[in-house]
Amino acid sequence: MDSEIFDKAQAILTNRRMRAVSENEMRIREVNEKIPQIREINEVLYNTGKELISIISNGKGKDISDKIEQLRQYNLGAQMMSKKILAENGYPEDYLEMHYTCPKCSDTGYNGSKFCDCFKALCGKLAADELNNNSQLELSSFDTFSLSYYSGENYNAMKNILEFTKQYAATFSPDSKSILMFGQTGLGKTHLSLAIANKVLEKGYGVIYDSAINILRKIEKEHFSREHSSEMIDLVMDTDLLILDDMGTEYESQFYTATIYNIINTRLNRGKPSIISTNLDFAGIGRRYDKRVVSRLVSMYSCLEFKGKDVRLQKRNNNA
């Protein structure tokens, strides 16, 4: 994982924790001022907490277990009384509890010994945001995709693809189908995949968008590092939508080929959608990759063939 993205995600989680603590302290002060009974109960709970620490430090055997259980029951009773009084005064029963953004990890980013899903999603969003800034996402919307550069049968084919991708983005869910975009360079594959990314991010889903070579390099770097890290591959496997651009432009190596298959196969098995773009046709994919890759792409992806003349060249010629 990019250390800068990791650090940004950690900083965001730290701010979330601090905000949760600050808001909780404000709620406690508010209730203590308005409801003296609650303040008294909170003081009792605080003192029993100190007593519990003393028991654990000085006690032993069955005696300590009995005392801890007595305190636990006493605290439960006090907490129930506190909730009842809050409700009687028009407050939610959980008003004095800590309200973290992610209750699974209490905004620490870790669920047990593993990264929490919220941390993975946050890193994926930060990675996508960084890429989108570099790729001028705002210029790659459906509205800026022009069909005027296509004609005849190519126009009809591209009009269908545009409508398909618009509908895909509008109805996207974690159960959406995967897409393979293939065809010659300069026909709009990157533009439309970025347009989808834009809409999916607006819905609040996590998206990782990058070129195949960049993602593979990061995975390779972590895999062969001294720590043998797996953060990047974990993010790639877990993000709501993976968009792998320019597959086939990466260096040919056994590790890259195996990783491409692993990404495609694992995300399919987990029911997670991916969008892959490539300048290769099916024959080219078959020559470049394991036949299992072709089989999964053909049978389990919606395959969109981009047709026409290089739009970038057309724009260049028109501006000449």
Can you describe this structure?
The two termini are 43 Å apart. With 320 residues, this protein is α/β, with parallel strands linked by helices. The protein is elongated and about 80 Å long. It folds into 2 domains: 3-88; 116-319, Rossmann fold (3-Layer(aba) Sandwich), CATH 3.40.50.300. 28% of the residues are buried. The strands form 2 sheets. The chain has a 5-stranded parallel sheet with strand order 4-5-6-3-7, sandwiched between helices. The chain has a two-stranded antiparallel sheet with strand order 1-2. It contains 12 helices and 7 strands. Helix 1 (3-34) crosses helix 2. It comes from Ruminococcus flavefaciens 007c. This is AAA+ ATPase domain-containing protein. One of its GO terms (biological process) is DNA replication.
Mean pLDDT: 85
The CATH homologous superfamily of the largest domain corresponds to P-loop containing nucleotide triphosphate hydrolases
Say what the CATH topology of the largest domain is: Rossmann fold
Specify Rg, calculated over alpha carbons: 27 Å
Distance between the termini: 43 Å
Protein name: AAA+ ATPase domain-containing protein
GO biological process, one term: DNA replication
Pfam families: IstB_IS21
GO molecular function: ATP binding
